[in-house]
Amino acid sequence: MLKTFSRILNGYQNFRKKYVVENNTLLHKLAKHGQKPEIMIVACCDSRVDPALLLQCDPGDLFVLRNVANIVPPYENDEAHHGTSAALEFGICYLNIKHLIILGHSQCGGIHALLNQQQLQQDDFISNWINLIKINANTSQETDACAKEALLTSYKNCLTFPWLKEKIAQNKLSLNLWFFEIQEGVIYNYSSEKKTFLPLDTEL
Ligand SMILES: [Zn+2]
User: Fold this and answer.
1) CA 105 / ligand 1 centre spacing (Å)
2) Which of 41, 67, 76, 191 has CA 20 to 30 A from 86's CA?
C-alpha cells in the first residue's frame, strides 16, 4: 500500500481514538444540534494549506470552501453552476457565519498558471477560472505578489454579493484576507489601514 495512504488510515484511527473512543461529547453534540461554525474560510486546494490543520481546529469549528487559487468570483445570478457562490450563500445566509477569511498562500499553482497560461497543456477549465483574477498592470508579475493582489480582487468580489455586503455594513460579518507563507510557516493578515500584509497578531 502507498506510504501516504497507510498514513491517512493511521490518521483516521487517531481521529477515532480522540473524538470517539476517549471523548465522544463533541461529535454527539454536533450530531444532535447541528453545525454552528462562526468562521468560514475560502482556501486554495493546495495540499500544503489545510485550514483545519493550520489552525488546529476541531470538527464544527470551520466551514471551509476550497477551490483553485482561493478565488471568490463576482456575484452572477445566472444559470451557470456557481459552486463557490452557493457555498458562500449557505455559509453567510444559513449558518450566519461571523468571520469570513480568504486564505491565500505562497507558491500558488493557480496564480502561477494565471501568469503562465501558455504553458497549460490541459485547459478545459483552469484558465477560464483563474482569469477571474485581474492583476493590476503596476503589480509585480511575481507569483506571491499576484496572489496577494488576487486576495484584494476576491475582497471586492465579495462586496458584489448583496447579502454579504449588507452583513458587513451591519457589522455582523468581518472579512479578513490572510496569506500563508509556506516556507516560513507564517500567516500574514491584510491591514486595510496600512494597506499591507502583516504577521497575524495572535494576541487576543
Ligand atoms: Zn494555491
Assistant:
1) 6
2) 191
Provide the domain count of the chain: 2
CA of 27 to the centre of ligand 1 (A): 31
Do 29 and 53 fall within a single domain?
no
Closest CA to 130 of 144, 142, 147: 147
Please tell me whether residues 9 and 84 are part of one structural domain.
Answer: no
Question: CA-based angle 102:74:50, to the nearest 5?
Answer: 25
Angstrom CA distances, 96 to 60, 175, 204, stand at 14, 13, 23
C-alpha cell at 69: 487559487
How far does the centroid of ligand 1 lie from the alpha carbon of residue 146, in Å? 12
Q: Which pLDDT belongs to residue 203?
A: 79
Enter the C-alpha cell of residue 43.
482556501
Task: Name the H helices within 22-107.
Answer: 25-33, 51-54, 83-89
Determine the Cα–Cα distance for residues 109 and 34; give it in Å rounded to an integer.
35
Q: How far apart are CA 86 and CA 91, in angstroms?
A: 9
Cα of 28 to ligand 1 centre, how many Å? Answer: 34
Shared domain check, 57 and 2:
no
Alpha-carbon distance of 147 to 35, in angstroms, equals 31
Q: What parts of the chain have a pLDDT lower than 50?
A: none
Using CA atoms, how far apart are residues 103 and 149, in angstroms rounded to an integer? 12
The residue type of 191 is S
